[in-house]
Amino acid sequence: MRCPFCDHQDTEVVETRDSEDLTTIRRRRECTKCNKRFTTYERVERVPLIVIKKDGRKDQFDRDKLKRGILKSCEKTIVGIDDIDTIVDDVEKELRGMDTVEVESKKIGQLVAQKLKKIDKIAYIRFASVFRRFVDVEDFEKELQKLL
């Protein structure tokens, strides 16, 4: 590891700490030439998840996009930002645990809907209406009947 101050190649690790979620390692290093200290972070590079859209297009999985969609469904409900972050984390964890890096958008929608249904029925209906593309009032009514 090169020193960011003097560009010397030889540095020593002085201290190592794991992050709270155990996904990152923080290392304090010291340059053997100028004796200045600096911090580096080490984490596993993950293989990107690919989302297969309904029309067959493929896009890279975007946590922020998923979170924005859930946030819209949860406006003016009891669902808090911590709950939404947990849903996004859980969905990504489930997707990464699958045998493939390519997943249909339908599967992601099902996972989110399943989790929202347990937390807040209104947020679930809002999300389902977009995810399942309710065309008319009858589709909406059928989903409400399932909840009741």
UniProtKB/TrEMBL annotation:
It comes from the Bacteria. It holds the Pfam family Zn_ribbon_NrdR. GO terms for molecular function: ATP binding; DNA binding; zinc ion binding. GO terms for biological process: negative regulation of DNA-templated transcription. Its cofactor is Zn(2+). Binds 1 zinc ion. A zinc finger (unnamed) spans 3-34. PROSITE patterns: ATP_CONE. The keyword DNA repair does not apply. Residues 49-139 form the ATP-cone domain. Keywords: ATP-binding, DNA-binding, Metal-binding, Nucleotide-binding, Repressor, Transcription, Transcription regulation, Zinc, Zinc-finger. InterPro entries: ATP-cone_dom (IPR005144), NrdR-like_N (IPR055173), RNR_NrdR-like (IPR003796). HAMAP family: NrdR. Negatively regulates transcription of bacterial ribonucleotide reductase nrd genes and operons by binding to NrdR-boxes. Belongs to the NrdR family. This is Transcriptional repressor NrdR.
